[in-house]
Amino acid sequence: MTGTEWVMIWERILPALAPIVVSAALIAVAGQWGLFALLIPLAHAGVLAGIVIVTLWLVVRGFMRFKRPTFQEIIARLALDNGYEYHKVLGMRHLKVHPKLKVAKPKAGLAQGDPMALRFVAALAAVLGFLIIGPVSINQVGAAFNPFVKDRPPAPAAIIAVSQNLMGHLPPNG
Fold first, then answer.
1. pTM score, whole prediction
2. Which of 41, 137, 167, 173 could make an S-S bridge to 147, C-beta 3.0–4.6 Å?
3. Helical H runs in 3-156?
4. Is residue 50 assigned to a domain?
5. Is residue 173 part of a domain?
6. Closest by CA position to 45, among listed 156, 151, 144, 163
7. Total structural domains in the chain?
8. What are the pLDDT digits (tens) for 33-73?
9. Full residue range of the structural domain in which residue 91 is found
10. From residue 84, how far is each of 1, 2, 41, 87 by CA, in Å?
């Protein structure tokens, strides 16, 4: 395999792995905000299990769409990255001496793996969480990934106040 082929394979694998990064970021932000502290451990585990199932489904779907780059795609990439026409690069195969062809850096493919741009939602929520709640301990963020941790950190006071405020404005049953 050539370096160009490795670069193109990486560009095609990266979008399939994007859901893992996005899911981990969203779980960490939920931990930062203390949203899992409001749930009982079994409900927290259920939410995490649902996130893992959806993430695995998205990753498998991404890998099922994977295909190795064809010879024509490799030649087209080399032509594009080096400023040559396709047929000129194709003809260089038969020359004994030809210029050294380089492949550009891999192109980011996160937009394909995260079409709803949830990575930006997670980043914005993390920044807002820092501005509203302030800095939180790493234990609080880490507890989001383990529902059965002993000594679960409590939810931040701002989140408790908002949840109590929302519960106070619910319509009466009946």
1. 0.73
2. 41
3. 3-33, 41-64, 71-82, 86-92, 110-113, 118-132, 138-143
4. yes
5. no
6. 144
7. 1
8. 888 888 899 999 999 999 999 999 999 998 998 888 888 88
9. 3-168
10. 22, 19, 60, 8
